[in-house]
Write a structure and sequence with these properties.
Coiled coil: 97-159
CATH topology of the largest domain: Helix Hairpins
Number of strands: 4
Largest sheet: 4 strands, mixed
CATH class of the largest domain: Mainly Alpha
Shape: rod-shaped
Structural class: mainly alpha
Keywords: Coiled coil
Region (Disordered): 57-93
Radius of gyration: 42 Å
Helix content: over 70%
Domain CT398-like coiled coil hairpin: 14-194
Number of helices: 5
Biased composition (Basic and acidic residues): 60-87
Strand content: 5-15%
Distance between the termini: 21 Å
Order of helices and strands: HHHHEEHEE
Length: 247
C-alpha cells in the first residue's frame, strides 16, 4: 500500500485522538462516584430492609396491643356486670354469692395479668417505633448522599462527554483527509492491536511494541520509498517514519 508521507503523519494524529478517546471512555467508566454510589445503594438497600422489618414489627405490635386492650376491656366489663349483680342484692343464695365473689376475684386477677401483657406489648411497640424513627433518619440521610453523589457523577460525566464530542469531531475532520484504504487498514489494525493501529518509528524503535528494529528490517525501511506504507515486523502495526526515526 502507498500513501503520501503527509497522510501517514496525519494517521499519527488520528491515533493520538483515538488514544485520547479511549482514555476518556475509561475515565468515564471509572469515575469514583460510580463506586461511591454502588456502595451507598448497597447500604440503602440494607437499611430499607431493616426499616421494613421494623415497620412490620411496629404494625404487628400495634395490632397485638389493640387485641390485648380489647381483652382487658372484655374482662373489665364482665367484672363490672358481676359486681353490679352482687351489689344489687338479687342473689340471696350463699352458694351463688360465694361463686360470684370467686368469679369477681378471678376476673380481677385475670384483668391484672392482661394489663401486664398490655404494658409489655406497649414497651415492645415503643421500642419498634424508636427503631423505625432511627432507621427512617438513616435512610433519608443515605438518600441525600446518593443524590449528591449522583449529581457529582452526572456533572463529571457531562464534562467528559463534552470533551469526547470535541475530540470525536476533530478526529472526523482529520480522518476525512486520509485515504480510505489507509484509514481502513489502520482501523482494522487498531481493533486487533489493543487500540493502536499506527505507531511512529522513533530512534529506530517502534513506538507501538517498543521493540528496536533489527538491522535487516531497518535497512528495508531505509530503502522503502517515502510513500510506501511500512509495517513493523514485530507487531504488524503501520510504522510511520518521521525526521526522528533515526534512519
Amino acid at each position: 500500500m502507498n500513501a503520501a508521507p503527509a497522510d501517514q503523519i496525519r494517521l499519527l494524529d488520528v491515533q493520538a485522538l483515538d488514544v485520547r478517546l479511549s482514555q476518556l471512555a475509561h475515565k468515564r467508566r471509572t469515575l469514583p462516584e460510580h463506586a461511591e454510589i454502588d456502595g451507598l445503594n448497597a447500604d440503602h438497600t440494607q437499611l430499607r430492609d431493616l426499616l421494613v422489618a421494623a415497620q412490620t414489627e411496629e404494625s404487628d405490635t400495634a395490632r397485638e396491643q389493640t387485641k390485648a386492650e380489647q381483652d382487658v376491656d372484655q374482662v373489665r366489663q364482665r367484672a363490672a356486670r358481676d359486681q353490679k349483680r352482687l351489689d344489687s342484692g338479687a342473689i340471696t343464695s350463699p352458694k351463688d354469692l360465694e361463686s360470684l365473689q370467686h368469679e369477681i376475684a378471678s376476673l380481677a386477677k385475670r384483668q391484672g395479668d392482661l394489663e401486664d401483657v398490655v404494658l409489655e406489648v406497649m414497651e415492645r411497640r415503643e421500642s419498634a417505633q424508636e427503631r423505625v424513627t432511627e432507621l427512617t433518619g438513616r435512610v433519608e440521610s443515605l438518600q441525600s448522599k446518593i443524590g449528591d453523589a449522583t449529581s457529582r457523577r452526572d456533572t463529571a460525566a457531562e464534562e467528559i462527554d463534552t470533551e469526547i464530542a470535541s475530540v470525536t469531531k476533530e478526529r472526523e475532520v482529520i480522518a476525512g483527509t486520509i485515504p480510505d484504504d489507509l484509514l481502513k487498514l489502520y482501523d482494522k489494525l487498531r481493533a486487533q492491536q489493543g487500540g493502536v493501529g499506527a505507531a511512529r518509528l522513533y530512534q529506530r524503535r517502534c513506538d507501538g511494541c517498543r521493540q528496536e528494529l533489527a538491522i535487516t528490517e531497518l535497512n528495508e525501511v531505509r530503502g522503502a520509498a517515502p510513500d510506501t506504507v511500512v509495517r513493523c515486523e514485530n507487531c504488524r502495526r503501520i510504522l510511520v517514519r518521521t525526521p526522528e526515526s533515526g534512519l
